Amino acid sequence: MIRISVRSVLLASAVAILTATTAFANSQWTTATTTFPGSIRAGSREVPVKPGDKTSIAIKNLQTGTTVTILKGDEVLTPEPLTADEKGNLTIPLTVPADAAPGLHPLTVITQNPASVSQVMLKLSQVVPPQNAEAFSLQTKPVGERAYQSAVSADGTLFVTSARGPKDGSRLLRLNAGTLAVEAEAELPKDRKGEQIGVFGVGVDNVHDHVWTTNTLAETVTVYDAKTLSVVKVFSEGSVAHPRDVIIDESHNRAYVSAALTGFVEVYDTNTLEHVGQLEFLVERGKTLFNSTDLALDSTGGKLYGVSRDTPWVGWIDLKTGKSTTVKVPEARGATDIARDPETGRLYVASQETNNVVVLDASGKVLADTYIGAGGVSVVWDAVTSQVFAATRAGGTVAVLDRDGKLVANIPVDDTPNHLAVATDGAVYLVSMYGTAGDKLQTGSVTKITFKK
Question: Strand, helix or coil at 130?
Answer without folding.
Answer: coil
